[in-house]
């Protein structure tokens, strides 16, 4: 049996399937990770990881027989791709299968923040409704939406927002001629002219803290930010200050800088809706992601072309 190392857990159905085919070393289950790595370094040929956990150069360097890193997620920002490329290690991810679910949560969070759905639920449950009507909230349909990053997820968010009659503009490194939405090459300008911003960019150095104090100030006190990309894309200090001071109206966040141990200031805010990095977390999508991880591993070890190669 081929030895593979998993960095974090997958659902039981994926694990069972992987264990039928490979000898699986579960890094997250052991206290002494270095000991596990050292004792199997000579045989581990694959890493199965998750988008947010990645694989560092330091880890890959400890595995001289490593041939492939298969990522259960589309984002590969936590995998050292340069190291993989330089050392002939293949990398795969799980694009497309999660796009629709992530876009659903983008719109879901926007509705939840603007229409205050969690607050409304609490209002009914704790009996306040019997005493007075709930204060009025913010409309979503017909508003001007700025999408930061027009990749697969950005386009899927735009499609949904079109059905809400939103006026859609987007920021990206390049204009997409295949899409009808307004392109804006200046992110601050996009924020200034938008009522809502939904961030769908890939993580990594080039997008780190792209949503900063200047962008938030441009969005203004009626603005709402939704982040379904990576925690790294938002300067959280600036975001927390803007949320606490009322410089923006609210935020819906699926991802955080230091997840899952997030900044506790978020927990004290009433103008945020928080999600535990769960935008792709449906049974349907996670099954498809797990299948793609296994199919890429099978293709690699069967000397067939990878299905979704990154490196
Ligand atoms: C997953 C993700 O939550 O696709 C990504 O990049 O971050 C998410 O879909 C994650 O990879 C599952 O662990």
Automatic annotation (TrEMBL):
Source organism, top-level taxon: Bacteria
Keyword NAD: yes
Domain D-isomer specific 2-hydroxyacid dehydrogenase NAD-binding per the UniProt entry, residue ranges: 107-279
Descriptive protein name: 2-hydroxyacid dehydrogenase
Residue span(s) of domain D-isomer specific 2-hydroxyacid dehydrogenase catalytic: 19-310
Alphabetical list of Pfam families matching this protein: 2-Hacid_dh, 2-Hacid_dh_C
Family stated for the protein in its record: Belongs to the D-isomer specific 2-hydroxyacid dehydrogenase family.
CDD domains xref list: HPPR
Keyword Oxidoreductase annotated: yes
InterPro entries to which the protein is assigned, alphabetical: D-isomer_2-hydroxyacid_DH (IPR050223), D-isomer_2_OHA_DH_cat_dom (IPR006139), D-isomer_DH_NAD-bd (IPR006140), NAD(P)-bd_dom_sf (IPR036291)
Keywords of this entry: NAD, Oxidoreductase
């Amino acid at each position: 049996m081929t030895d593979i190392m998993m960095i974090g857990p997958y659902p039981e159905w994926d694990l069972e399937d992987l264990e039928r085919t490979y000898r699986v070393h579960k890094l997250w289950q052991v206290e002494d990770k270095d000991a596990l790595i050292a004792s199997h370094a000579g045989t581990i040929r694959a890493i199965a990881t998750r988008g947010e956990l990645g694989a560092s150069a330091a880890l890959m360097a400890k595995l001289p027989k490593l041939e492939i890193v298969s990522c259960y997620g589309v984002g590969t920002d936590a995998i050292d791709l340069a190291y993989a490329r330089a050392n002939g290690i293949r990398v795969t991810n799980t694009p497309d299968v999660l796009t629709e679910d992530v876009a659903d949560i983008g719109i879901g969070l926007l509705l939840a923040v603007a229409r205050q759905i969690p607050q409304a639920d609490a209002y009914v449950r704790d009996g306040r409704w019997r005493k007075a009507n709930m204060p009025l909230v913010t409309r979503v349909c017909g508003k001007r939406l700025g999408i930061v990053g027009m990749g697969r997820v950005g386009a899927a968010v735009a499609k949904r927002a079109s059905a809400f009659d939103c006026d859609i503009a987007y920021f990206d490194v390049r204009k997409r001629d295949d899409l009808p939405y307004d392109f804006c090459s200046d992110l601050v300008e996009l924020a200034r002219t938008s009522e809502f911003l939904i961030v769908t960019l890939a993580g990594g150095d080039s997008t780190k803290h792209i949503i900063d104090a200047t962008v938030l100030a441009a969005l203004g006190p009626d603005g709402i930010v939704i982040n379904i990309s990576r925690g790294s894309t938002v300067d959280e200090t600036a975001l927390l200050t803007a949320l606490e001071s009322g410089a923006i109206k609210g935020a819906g966040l699926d991802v955080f800088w230091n997840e899952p141990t997030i900044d506790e200031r978020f927990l004290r805010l009433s103008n945020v809706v928080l999600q535990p990095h769960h935008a792709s977390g449906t049974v349907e999508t996670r099954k498809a992601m797990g299948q793609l991880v296994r199919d890429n591993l099978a293709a690699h070890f069967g000397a067939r072309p990878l299905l979704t190669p990154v490196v």
